Amino acid sequence: MVFEGLAEKLQSTFKNLRSQGKLTEKDVKAAMREVKLALLEADVNFKIVKDFVKKVTERAVGSDVLESLTPGQQVIKIVNEELTALMGETQSKIKFASNPPTILMMVGLQGAGKTTTTGKLAALMRKNYSRRPLLVACDVYRPAAIKQLHVVGNSLDIPVFSMGDQVDPVEIAKQGVEHARKHGNDLVIIDTAGRLHIDEKLMGELENIKKEVVPDEILLVVDSMTGQDAVNVAKTFNETLEIDGVVLTKLDGDTRGGAALSVRAVTGKPIKYAGMGEKLNDLEEFHPERMASRILGMGDVLTLIEKAQDAFDEKQAKELEKKIKNQEFDLEDFLNQLQQMKKMGPLKDILGMIPGLNSKQLKDVEVDDKEFARLEAIILSMTKDERKNPKIVNGSRRKRIAMGSGTNVSDVNKLLKQFEQMKKMMKQFSGMEKKMKKGKKGLKLPFM
Question: Mean pLDDT over residues 333-358, rounded?
């Protein structure tokens, strides 16, 4: 879960504040000490922590807050606003060129996930903005870097331009842009070389590519798990190249969160995207206000809705609604729903976006994504007739299904029992809905 340690400490601090009916200046300052410690432990830059705590304290000890009916909530609101401001106020989008192609130059240290992120970004641009991207392989130093970009491009069905590892990267970048113009690609994403650490040769080469192709945006890819080091890297790249934005990778890992909360304040440049997993669709547009809400345990309903919209087919949803109303829901439909839920990502991450569910609560919940695979295997081991009419699944059939799915008969029994319970619930809801509609047409109940 994103910022797990930081989120847990902040939520615990604010829970204590909320439980107090009245707050004093002493209570606020005690809470701010806890906030300060939590941020420093998360590897947030010391100066940034100091400024952040000062701003929140000044706002929180005002009479408007302390004398309000809900002082605890008011303090949390202030922290939420200041956290959002710290990460950039609003979402920052890519500025597309008025005269295509738009050229994006990806820079960063080796190991930050730059090549994979280049592919992820291309896929996101194609999906969200209907762009026709071309990836350009300019990393001629790292063994297999060019091949890696081709593998990523092939898996996404996105073209890759390369000239081997014996050509000057500046020339490759120039030829890549020309290739895009000739072949109708309106977006060029250049994957440049990284080093294990910043050196003059690396920066000189990047400056030369910048002068030659004049990119519309330079995006710095930063490994969020490197904490404060990531901020120092961002500062140096920005001073040399004047970057336009940051892409944080591995934000789903066991990260302390310092990079995300420091990099914007140190460079003055926005975080534009966040890598939330290893899959090639696990890149999200960065929304500071949503991230602040997630850290404070207030959920992230908008991202949850967007994920659901991407995963669920509207036509299938309408057909499913009709089947539920007519009590025709079967195991085939159940399987479809499982497969669509899987597209939304790990279940624990999805639950973490629900308001009111904090990381501490989720620790006590057994969220086993393998259970999805087990249920899927059981249903796929059934015949079409068995899925349509589970009542025909007798003892011998249950044994066959268990063997075919690599599970036990008890697992098959459990699934069938759960499915029957679900159908009963659906029948009850359907009946309630019909009564409500009947009441509207005939009786005209006073509360309708």
Answer: 64
Is 401 a residue whose pLDDT tops 60?
Answer: yes
Q: How far apart are CA 160 and CA 135, in angstroms?
A: 5
Residue 31 near residue 57, CB atoms below 8 Å: no
The tens digit of pLDDT for each residue in 94-144 reads: 999 999 999 999 999 988 899 999 999 999 999 999 999 999 999 999 889
Cα-based distances in Å from 217 to 12, 106, 175, 265, 356: 40, 9, 18, 19, 38
For the segment(s) 102-298, the CATH number from 3.40.50.300, 3.30.300.20, 3.90.930.1, 3.90.25.10 is 3.40.50.300
Half-sphere CA count of 443, side-chain side, radius 13 A:
9
Instruction: Output the CATH code of domain 4-87.
Output: 1.20.120.140
Question: How far, CA to CA in Å, does 236 sit from each of 89, 197, 216?
Answer: 24, 11, 20
* CA 235 to centroid of chain Cα atoms: 25
Res 122: pLDDT: 97
Backbone angles phi, psi at 93, to 5 degrees: -100, 165
Q: Provide the edge-to-edge strand list for the sheet that holds 217-223.
A: 160-161, 133-137, 187-191, 102-107, 217-223, 245-249, 271-275, 283-285
- Output the six-digit token pair for 324: 């539920």
152 touches 280 (CB < 8 A): yes
**How confident is the model at residue 303, as a pLDDT?**
55
pTM of the model: 0.67
Question: To 5 degrees, how large is the angle CA 63–CA 66–CA 72?
Answer: 145
d(CA 190, CA 209) in angstroms, rounded, equals 10
- 8 Å CB contact between 422 and 430: no
Tokens, residue 77 = 């609101």
Q: Is the pLDDT of residue 308 over 60?
A: no
